[in-house]
Amino acid sequence: SRNKLSSFSGHLCRLTKLIYLDLSENEINSIPKEVSNMKYLQVLLLYHNKFVSFPRELCALNSLQTLDLSENQIQCIPSDICNLQVIKDLNLSNSQLVSFPSEICHLSSLEKLKLCQINGLKLTKLPEELSKLTCLRELDISHNALKEIPEGIGELKHLVILAANNNYISQLPKSVTSLSDLQQLNLSDQATVMLPSGLQHLQSLKDINVDGNPLIRPPQEVCKGKQLYTIVRYLESADERDGKILQKILKIISGNVSFENFEFFCQKLQFNNAEIKSLENNRTLVLEEKILQALESWKSENQALTPAEMIDQLIRILTMTGMHYLTNKVKALKLYTQSLKF
């Protein structure tokens, strides 16, 4: 490395028994096709060179396990990359990739992937296909412009380190809580306002960093010590509180929806006509009880949502039905209870 080489010499390709090769910090921009002769090469370091695309010739290195192409100007990845069937460690940080290369998602042996873009072109989206990298243990997607992490992240059951700091992620997917092997989670310096319930399932987690976020749930002062137990206890208490608020809101709504609005309201709760007629024709229940039954049924159908998310969904439904007085009443209750310290 650091020899200001302008090319990958064909003479190197004659070293067919070579296992480790470091040609980093040079001015190389292409790879000779003879590189395929280096059948035993396991580690290849090419960071800080002049590549503008991923060299297709490297895809013939069947024994390659570690490849570092960071600090280049790489703009695209060839589909042939799937031929790297034993690759474990891939670094494409500080590149010029316009979008996350879905071709990477076919590297089923990959254990470590770095796409940290401090000085590179910022990625704005991660593909759902990321979930195919089931052997992944370390994922660095820091310093990008990501607004969300796909739900498929929960399929990466062996993930130990997730670095997603310095992005624009406002909320983590619930599936993150299924990453039972996760030990380090870095979410610092972005737009995260709430952490998901269920963090107690991350039993291996040792280090969680959420500094520099406009956190509301839990508030930043709860997270300062980076103690998972403290954060989890807060979230559990918040869920319990929100559950009580939700029940109160259901009762408020059931007592304030008129007969004229009943059918339209039930439609917004995603009830079909037969279900609505069945409720309407139930003479054993008064209107308030019918509405409460409808709401309880809606609640049971939406168990995937947290109580807080259910409250937000109900506010949207009330807004759509045009019941502004009731909408404002529910909003006021939500804001008041959120302002209470516990």
Automatic annotation (TrEMBL):
Q: Which SMART domains match?
A: LRR_SD22, LRR_TYP
A Gene Ontology BP annotation from the UniProt entry = signal transduction
- The answer on whether this UniProt entry bears the keyword Repeat reads yes
Which superkingdom is the protein from? Answer: Eukaryota
Give the record's keywords alphabetically. Answer: Leucine-rich repeat, Repeat
Report the residue ranges that make up the Death domain in this protein: 265-334
Annotated Gene Ontology cellular components are: cytoplasm
* Keyword Repeat annotated: yes
Full protein name: Leucine-rich repeat and death domain-containing protein 1
